[in-house]
Amino acid sequence: MLDFTITTPVFPEQLVCKHGDARCNASRFLRSVSADKKANTLNSFFAYGNEGEVVVCRGKQAKPKSQTSIGLAADAQDAWHQVHSIFEQNGHRFIFGFLGYGFGLVAGTAGNDEFPAYWFGTADLAIRFGTNKWEILHGDDVALDKLIKQTVACACQQKNLQLAVTLDQSDDADYLEQVEKALAWVQQDASRRMTVARRVPLPSVDLLDTFHCQPSHNTLSRSFYLDIGTAAFVGKCPEVLLDWTPGKFNSYKLSGTYPKDKNPESDKELVEQFLADGKIISEHQLSADGFGACIAKVGAVSRQGPSILNLDRLRHMMTTFTVNTDPKTPIAECLRAVLPAGVSPTAEGVPALLAIEKGKRGPYYGLVGLYAPSGKASFTQILRSVFKQDENYYSWVGAAVTNGSSAKGELEESKLKLSDIVVALR
To answer: pTM score, two decimals?
Structure first.
C-alpha cells in the first residue's frame, strides 16, 4: 500500500469490524460522512485498499489548467496534457480518481453525462482505516469526531449477498455475435487480440456494502469505491498496473482465466490443465508482450513469470514487470504507458472494437487509484465492478479473443469472471 505521515491512532469501539476487515470500517464511515446530501452536494468520496488497510478521501474535482473538453475535438496529446497538469498542480495533495477506457487513444471516447472520460479529485480529508483503528492523514474536520460516533455497528453477516453471474439476464446470443465479429478481425493476423466486453444489467445494489463484501485472499487485490456525485462505481481487482514511486514502478499483468475446484485433488488437475492449455499460454504471451512494449517507452523493463494468481473462485496467469524510469518522469507518462487498450495492434484495433461493442464502457477497463503527497501511488485496472448511473445498476465483463478462441468459450469465460463479483443487494 502507500506510506504516510500519520496522527495518533484513535480506537472508537463501534468502528471496529467484528471480522477484522478494514473495508467494513471504511464503508460504514463513508455511509456516515456522505449521509448529509445537502452539505455534501459538491463533495466526492473515494476508498481504496484491502482487508488490512483502506484509505478514504473526501474532496472535490480537480481542474486542469487547460479546459479543453475531452471529446471529438480533443486530440490524445491535449487529453494527456490535462491529466499531467492536474498532477503537476496538486503534487502536494492526495489525488484520487479514474481514467476511462479509450482515454487518449482515439477521438470521441468521452463518456456520457454521468461518467466523463476521466475524473480526478483532490482530498480535503484523507483517513487511513486499519482493522481496529483509524488515522487522519490530511485535514482537520471539526465534525470528524461526531461522524465517527455516528458510525453504525458492524453487521457483516446480515447482508443480502448474491453472485453477479446468478443475476445475469443479458442476451447470450448478442455476446456470441460480438465475439464472432472479433474473431473475424483477429484471425486476419496471428499477433492480433481483442478483449470484447458486454454490459450486464443488475438490480438495485448497495455500493458501500458491496465494497467490503468481496473475497480477496491475496495481497494484490484492491477494493475501490468512487462516488463523483452524478455517478458511482465499486469493485475489486487484483490487476495493479501501477505501483509507483518516482523513478520506479511495478505492474502485475493478468491474462488467462481458469476455474478452481474446492476439492484439492480435482483442483490439482485443473492447475495442470491450466499450465498446459495452449490457448491460455498464447493469450497471456500476447498480452504480456504487448504490455511490455508499452511500458518500455518510459523506462528499462524486467519481467518475472508467468506465475499463477489464485483468487476465491478462479485463477489467472500473471507476469510481474518492474520498470526503472528517470526519477523526473511524471506519473502521467507512467499512467499513459500502463492504461490498458485491450486490443492489439492498438491503432487499428480500438476503432474496430468500438464498432463491435454495443455501448460505451465508460470507466470499465480503465484505471482507478490514489496518489499520495509522499510520492507514492497505486492504480488498479477497473474490472469486477458495479456501476451506478441515476438508479441504473450494471456491471461489465469481458474475455480476450485470440486465434485459439471460440465464441462459446469466451462466453463461458465471461460467466466465470462474473462469478467472482459479489454484490450486496438493497
So the answer is: 0.93
